[in-house]
Structure formats: structure tokens, C-alpha cells
Design goal:
single chain; mainly alpha
Amino acid sequence: MAFIENSRQSLVPSFLYTTPVSKKLFDVDTLVRGNPTLPTASSNGGASKSFMIPAPSEPGKIAMFSPAYYAACTAGGTLCCGLTHMAVTPLDLVKCNMQIDPTKYKSISSGFGVLLKEQGVKGFFRGWVPTLLGYSAQGACKYGFYEFFKKYYSDIAGPEYATKYKTLIYLAGSASAEFIADVALCPMEAVKVRVQTQPGFARGLSDGLPKFVKSEGALGLYKGLVPLWGRQIPYTMMKFASFETIVEMSYKYAIPTPKEQCSKSFQLGVSFAGGYVAGILCAIVSHPADNLVSFLNNAKGATVGDAVKNLGLWGLFTRGLPLRIVMIGTLTGVQWGIYDAFKVFVGLPTTGGVTPAPAATVPAKV
């Protein structure tokens, strides 16, 4: 009985992997015989002990759940979020202005026209520096901590319950990660919105940050933190849980070939498609809070009540939504593509896949 309890602690939830379960089971004696350098396993009464080990990454590459693994996930998150958000700065700029001044920026096409007429082509990328820095920091925390919390909560739940309630693991892990990530993002988001929605306020981060602090104080940089949590935490929970589910269902029902037999390029295509669909769902869920963040960071001394009164409930849910669906759908799809491409580059498996049945604990021989 004591052995079974100890063995269970060494189990890693099988749903975190796409490698067939049969490839993960090894006998200690077999390992010792195959590698003389390993210490001899001892057991009571000469009993042979079996246990599960994590699915290995490619030889010479990064071991799963090692410090290097989490560092790689953090680096991948930095790249995928920072680069993609910077690339869609023009869309974000029009979206923010549509939320703040809908009488002037009436539609997507007219919004681009107004910006082009008043600020020229250069104006489309106003605020790109705080966007790059803020979302790079957010992406590092979002993806790095998601991988950490997903493993951490799976270990707490145990193999059986982690597999059974995997969606809850995804939701809890992504919510925990985003809570931390938004603290990193909030100051840059505040400066970005002010630079983008108040012409003449500042040219960018270098002069915008000091002006913002002088006007609002250092704590003013975090005035939008609670609405940011309200926007980003549901967004990220939907982003990760729906992506993992969509990818799993794709390999289970829509793709005839098992994931491990698909080419890496095909797997990355699945990641992009799953991310795009997940992004559409994210945009709808988080849009009211996105309107609140834009309003609060643009108006000095404004409250949530002022935002609701000014925008109205319908406007809170719909203003700028079509553009945000296009922007977030594309953004999320490309992010998952970049993130998984980076994981493949360093020798890690792509995210998501078919969930195998939980492995049973192998009792000691008597």
C-alpha cells in the first residue's frame, strides 16, 4: 500500500502528453540493465517496481518540466505576444479610437481614413513601443506560468482527476497565469492607450511615460488593473481552454491520422486554426471589459460607472466588436502558431492533442 502511494506521486498526468501511454511505461530493472551506470533498484522481497516517467522530448533537447522547459515556454510567449501585438498596432489604434470617440471614428474604413488624413501613414504605428514591451512581458508570464500552473494543478489533482477534469485544469492554470501577466502589462497598456487616443499627448513611450506619471502619479499606471483583469482573465481562460479542447477534438474526430504521425508543419497548421477559432470566442467574452479599459485609461479621473453611463450597456458589448473579432482571431491564431513553432524548434511537442485514458498504477509484485 505504501508503494502504491509513493508510485502515484511519481506519476505525471497522461493528458499533458500526446505520446502513446505504452511508450511511457518502463520497468526499473529493464532501465538498470539497459544502463549499467544507473543504481540498482531495491525492493522488499525482490519485487520488481514499475512506474511512469514523463514523456521524453527529442534526444539532446529540452527535458519536459525542467527549468529549461519553462524558460523555453517563457521565451516562446514573449515572442508570440510581443511581435503579434506590435504587428496589429494599426488595427488596435483604430479600435481604441472607435471605443473612445465613435462620432469621429464611425467605422473601420472611416477610422483608417481619419487617421491617414490627420496623422499620415506614420500615425498608424503610434504607440508601438509600449505595445511591444508591454505585451512581450505579458506573453512571457502568460505562457510560462500557464505551463507551470497546468503541471502544478495536475500534480495536486492526481493522474485520474487531472485527466477527468482537464478543462478545469486549463481554466485554473490560465487564470492564475493571467493574473500575474496583467501586473506586468498594465503600466505599458496605460501609456499605450493615452498615446493612441489623445493626439498631441506624446510621441511614444519615452515622453509619454513621464507625462503620464506626472499627471496621474505612479499608481495611476495601475488604475486600469482591475478592468484589465476583468478583460484579460476571461479572455485567457477562453483562449487556452478552448484552444486545448479544439485541438483535441480536431485530432480525435476530424483528422484521421494520429497526431504523433502528422508532420510538424501540419501540426502547426492545426495550432493556427485552433487558435483562430479560440480567438473569436475570446474577443466576444472579453469585449465589454476591453471597452472599460480604453475608457478609463483615456479619461482622467473616470470611473467604471462613468464608462457604463457614457457607453451604455449595448455600446459596452458591441462598440468596436467586429474589428476586435478580426484582430483577436488573427492575433490568437498567429500567436499559437508562433508559440508552437518555437516549441518545435527547441525540440518540444506542440500544444494539445488527443487525451489518452489515465494510466493505472502498477502494484508491486508479490
